[in-house]
Amino acid sequence: MPVLRHSLHRTPGERDFLMAWVSVPDLTVSPSPQRYTHLAPHRVRFTSLDSDFRSDLTFDPDGLVVDYPGLAHRLGD
């Protein structure tokens, strides 16, 4: 994940990435321009650069997602 690779869950910064989106079940691959912005320790904003979607993600100290609002929330420790 770009956040872990660039330590955005730990250190200030903002990075743009061009990711691949794979549609299921037809397996069509499309470009997905994205931005990740450090908000605070363990808090990062994901912004889609080709739509109006954005979400503030929470990470643990190891860079694993703890909370992705509307999609997933890690249970337990």
Short synopsis of the structure:
This protein is mainly β. It has one helix at residues 2-5, and strands at 14-22, 29-40, 43-48, 54-59, 65-68, 72-73.
Task: Outline the secondary-structure elements.
Blueprint: H1 2-5, E1 14-22, E2 29-40, E3 43-48, E4 54-59, E5 65-68, E6 72-73
Describe this protein's structure:
The protein has one helix spanning 2-5; strands at 14-22, 29-40, 43-48, 54-59, 65-68, 72-73. With 77 residues, it is mainly beta. The protein has one domain (2-73). Strand 2 (29-40) and strand 3 (43-48) form a beta hairpin. The longest helix is centred in the N-terminal third of the chain and has 4 residues, at 2-5.
Number of strands: 6
Q: Topology as H/E string? A: HEEEEEE
What's the total helix number?
1
Mean pLDDT: 94
Helix content: under 10%
Q: Termini, distance in Å?
A: 21 Å
User: Which band does the percent of strand residues land in?
Assistant: over 45%
Low-confidence stretches: none
Instruction: Going across the biggest sheet, name each strand in turn.
Output: 1-2-3-4-5-6
Q: Which sheet architecture does the biggest sheet show?
A: 6 strands, antiparallel
Report the structural category.
mainly beta
What is the domain tally? 1
Q: What is the alpha-carbon Rg in Å?
A: 13 Å
Shape: globular
Provide key terms for this protein.
single chain, 77 residues, mainly beta, six-stranded antiparallel sheet, 1 helix, 6 strands
